Amino acid sequence: MHIAEGYLPPAHAAAWGVAAAPFIVHGVRALTREVRSNPESTLLLGASGAFTFVLSALKLPSVTGSCSHPTGTGLGAILFRPPIMAVLGTITLLFQALLLAHGGLTTLGANAFSMAIVGPWAGYGTYLLVRRFGAPLMVAVFFGAFVADLSTYCVTSVQLALAFPDQGSGVMGALAKFGSIFAVTQIPLAVSEGLLTVLVMRLLTQSSKGELTRLGVLTRSAAKRHEEADAR
Amino acid sequence: MSFTVSRNTKINALLLLVVAALAVLPLALGLGDHKEEPFTGADAEAETAITELQPDYEPWFSPLYEPPSGEIESALFALQAALGAGVLAYYFGVRRGRRQGEARASAKASEAAVVAETAAGSGSTAAGDKDA
């Protein structure tokens, strides 16, 4: 659930736009480089963007008695690294802002910053960290996607708290308020997103070993093990 | 390929089941009952919170296009999900087709090799017969 159109004061909206712009420009460069040097990856890039499209259209009920939707940015961040998700995530946000009146053009910078930049980076960082501890691939994928989803909405809460501090308790008071709306609602959805990302990654390890090995998600020995497991 | 359900498929089905349970449980347990309007969007709740925190705040920009009704909006959301699901399904379909094609090609190649071998083998026995 993104910040609605017009719901950030102009100065804040502009500041988040300025903050997000370099990441998106860098992402566009990374994307064109990837497509140019590995034309065969275009199909998987499309699938990663499609995953974001599906998940951010799914509004799911949560334990707080309200609804929100996952982001789907963890998968692409793990596969293609975060800069590319800055582009794919922003495209999804733009679609929703233009056609669905969900999110908005004035809040696009802030929403891109949370969903297309912080989410993918936090998720990717978590994925790398969990892998470094020697955890199995799917455990790292789960936590990467979980963190990508949850951190997005934590950033949204901070953005709103900065723009609308509480009269008495200031930014922290407002953060508690927005956090209880966004972040708490998001916890079970982040678990769902983690599980769905694991599901897609499992299907990918079965169907696209070569690609995953090239992207460094599977090592050569791991790809071989999967092959043997499939043969059995 | 056999018709017994593989371990892989079972795990995948279980993952989907847990996701479905996570979505249904809040509804089944009535976790929205304490609200006047249960299961509204978190973004709408945030708008309410903003008006509570700063009653004089007015949104200074409105969406260029707004779906005229809830039905149109849900149609557009369904379209978004369908587009995404379509591309994903296309991806996995292409991959599967490619793998099947490769498997068939390699099966054909090894079959041809076996035929060639037996042909060569029978040729040599025939030659042997002539010698004897």
Largest sheet of chain B: none
Measured by residues with Cβ under 8 Å of the partner chain's Cβ, the largest interface is: A-B, 71 and 57 residues
Distance between the termini of chain A: 44 Å
N-to-C order of helices and strands of chain A: HHEEHHHHHHH
Overall mean pLDDT score of chain A?
Answer: 93
Count of individual domains of chain B: 2
Q: How large is the radius of gyration of chain A?
A: 18 Å
Total helical elements of chain B: 3
Element-level helix/strand string of chain B? HHH
CATH topology of chain A: Arp2/3 complex 21 kDa subunit ARPC3
Please tell me how large the radius of gyration of chain B is: 31 Å
As residue ranges, the low-confidence spans of chain B are: none
| Percent of residues in β-strands of chain A | under 5%
How far apart, in Å, are the first and last alpha carbons of chain B?
48 Å
**Overall residue-averaged pLDDT value of chain B:** 86
Helix count of chain A, per DSSP?
9
Categorize the overall geometry of chain A. globular
Give me the count of strands of chain B: 0
> Helix/strand/pairing class of chain A, anyone?
mainly alpha
Summarize the structure in short.
Chain A is mostly helical. Chain A has nine helices and two strands. Chain A has a two-stranded antiparallel ribbon with strand order 1-2.
Task: Annotate the secondary structure layout.
The complex is a heterodimer of chains A (232) and B (132).
Chain A: H1 10-37, H2 42-55, E1 60-61, E2 67-68, H3 73-80, H4 82-99, H5 108-132, H6 137-163, H7 170-207, H8 209-214, H9 220-231
Helix pairs in contact in A: 1-4, 1-5, 2-3, 2-4, 3-4, 3-5, 3-6, 4-5, 5-6, 6-7
Chain B: H1 7-28, H2 42-53, H3 70-131
Question: Mind explaining what this structure looks like?
Answer:
The complex is a heterodimer of chains A (232) and B (132). With 232 residues, chain A is an all-alpha fold. The model of chain A has no long low-confidence stretch (mean pLDDT 93). Chain A has a single domain, classed as Orthogonal Bundle (Arp2/3 complex 21 kDa subunit ARPC3). In chain A, strands 1-2 form a two-stranded antiparallel sheet. Chain A is globular, with a radius of gyration of 18 Å. Chain A has helices spanning 10-37, 42-55, 73-80, 82-99, 108-132, 137-163, 170-207, 209-214, 220-231, and strands spanning 60-61, 67-68. Chain A has nine helices and two strands; from the N terminus they run H-H-E-E-H-H-H-H-H-H-H. Chain B is an all-alpha fold and 132 residues long. Chain B has two domains: 1-61, no CATH class; 70-132. Chain B has three helices and no strands. The longest helix of chain B has 62 residues, at 70-131. Chain B starts with 6 loop residues before the first helix and ends with a helix. The mean pLDDT of chain B is 86. At the A-B interface, helix 2, strand 1, strand 2, helix 4 and helix 7 of A face helix 1, helix 2 and helix 3 of B.
